[in-house]
Design goal:
This protein is α+β, with helices and mostly antiparallel strands and about 150 residues long. Helices cover about 30% and strands about 35% of the residues.
């Protein structure tokens, strides 16, 4: 499995994964715009077949944010999500980011377990954050320099 930067030709396949992963997926044009404005955008591929992606950006001087992360249903639990987010965390560290945050649906247990396994913790519960009154957890990760 290889992780590399997103290329515009990956857009359709990334959108396929987005649609299978979220009840309210980003439109393909939105994914393109996120790339165009210069977000961090990585894909994971196996034999040239894209199986996951992560989109992230620097929110403030020393704060990073995960915008979206998803792995194709058929490739889950193979450490692909972990490798994508660890690569993003390494990139953030290179920019001296101290704290990384994200929002996740409170009912999305697989994602909450996943982020906890990486070292994220729940900061706060945000009521009615998503459509139809769905609550969110804001989760954070503190970047610690390795000695
Ligand atoms: C969340 C997601 C990205 C995880 O990707 P993944 O490649 O399957 O995750 P990994 O294989 O790296 O899992 C790492 C660890 O996370 C935890 N984990 C992952 N999925 C889990 C699940 N369904 N139930 C419990 N723990 C889980 C486990 O501790 C796992 O380690 P293990 O397999 O050795 O037990 C993936 O499930 C996904 O795309 N979900 C749909 C989209 C989504 O919810 N994205 C996040 C929105 S903010």
């Amino acid at each position: 499995m290889i992780i590399r930067e997103f290329r515009p030709k990956d857009l359709r396949r990334v959108h396929e994964i987005e649609k299978m992963s979220f009840s309210n997926p980003y439109e393909i044009e939105m994914l393109k715009q996120l790339f165009d404005i210069g977000t961090g955008f990585l894909v994971a591929h196996i034999n040239d077949y894209i199986v996951g992606y992560i989109i992230f950006w620097i929110k403030k001087e020393d704060q990073g944010h995960i915008i979206s992360l998803a792995v194709d249903n058929n490739y889950k639990r193979q450490n692909i999500g972990s490798k994508l987010i660890m690569t993003a965390i390494d990139i953030f560290k290179n920019f001296d980011i101290k704290r990384i945050s994200l929002e996740v649906k409170a009912q999305n247990k697989e994602a909450v377990y996943f982020y906890k396994s990486i070292g994220f913790f729940c900061d706060e519960k945000i009521l009615n954050y998503y459509e139809e009154g769905v609550n969110a957890f804001r989760m954070s990760f503190i970047c610690v320099d390795e000695f």
